[in-house]
Amino acid sequence: MKTIPQPAVITPSIIVLALLAAAVVFIGVTGKKVPLLSNIRVDIILLVILGMTICTQGGIGRIAATGQWSHPLSIIGYILGGLILLITLAVFVGWKPPYIQNDQQALLAIALLASLKVVNAVTHYLLARS
């Protein structure tokens, strides 16, 4: 039986994207004046786009390559991604989710959930390798 090689979770392109995402969060949280990034909502959109790009490479893309769609850690990844999208939607629709009072807190919540999603993907990768 031919086994499918499992793509890596951490690649140089993912590291670069993660560093860009960290810079966006830093700029959004500190309120630094940077062209194009001085609006917290633009920061949120950019963070979500960077996160989706990371996910296509090291998350859902890897799950698709290995066919582990129903693995419990895959499902946790779907839930975390859904929460990120729900918070993003809430910011632009004007909803006030619990514990998130403003757009800056929403940016932090998205960054935290994205970090948990990365930890989940790395854990899934390490468990599947052994």
Report on this model:
Helices cover 72% and strands 0% of the residues. It has 130 residues and is mostly helical. The chain has one domain (12-129). α1 (12-30) packs antiparallel against α2 and α1 runs antiparallel to α5. The longest helix is centred in the C-terminal third of the chain and has 27 residues, at 103-129.
- Total of DSSP H or I helical runs spanning 4+ residues: 5
Number of extended strands: 0
Structural class: mainly alpha
Helix content: over 70%
What fraction strand?
Answer: under 5%
Task: For the record, give the distance between the C-alpha atoms at the N and C termini, rounded to a whole number.
Answer: 18 Å
Assembly type: single chain
Low-confidence stretches: none
Could you describe the largest sheet, including whether it forms a barrel?
none
Shape: globular
SSE arrangement, N to C: HHHHH
Number of domains: 1
Mean pLDDT value: 89
Radius of gyration: 16 Å
